[in-house]
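Would you mind writing out a protein's amino acid sequence and the numbers that encode its backbone to help me picture the idea?
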Amino acid sequence: MDCTRRGFASRLGLLLAGVSEGGAWALPAVGTGASSAPAAQHEQHSRLPMTTHASGNAENKLAPAEEVWSNLVAGNKRFVAGRPLVRDVVARRNAVLSG
C-alpha cells in the first residue's frame, strides 16, 4: 500500500476522476462510464522516479549561498539604477518545451 503524500494525492486524483481501482485503496467509481485509461496512466506515472524542479538542467541546480547572495545584490543594484535584466521569456519557454 502506498501511504506517501504522492500516493495519497494520486488516489485522490483518481477518486475525483471517477476511476475505480482494486487493492487495499479501492475507490468507488464516481458517476458512470469510468474507464481504465486514467488508471493505467496513473500506474505508469507512479513507477517513474520523483523529481524536483532542481533536477533539470545545470541552470536549475543549487548554487552556493555566496553566489546566490551576490546575484541578489547585483539584481538589487540593477533595479535601483533602473536597468532591469531583459529576458526573452517566450524564447526560453519554447526552448524548455523542446527539451
Q: What stands out?
A: DSSP finds four helices and no strands in the chain.
